[in-house]
Amino acid sequence: MISIIVPVFNEEARKNESIPNLLSTLKILDRDWELIAINDGSTDMSLEILHKIAKQNKRLRVISYSINKGRGKALRVGFSHARGDIIITTEADSSWGDGIIFSMIKKLEENNNYDFVIASPHIDGGGYKNVPYYRSFLSKYGNKILRKAFANKITMATGMTRCYRGKIIKSLLLESDGKEVHLEILSKLLILGYQPVEIPAILEWKKDKKGKKRRSSFNAKKLILSHLLFSFTELPWLLFGSLGYFFIALGIFLGVITQFHHFIYGYSPSRPPFVNPALITLLIIVGLQIILVNFIALQNKKTYGEIIKLQKEVIDLKEKNVPKICDDDINSE
Question: Distance (Å, rounded) from C-alpha 189 to C-alpha 110?
Answer without folding.
Answer: 20
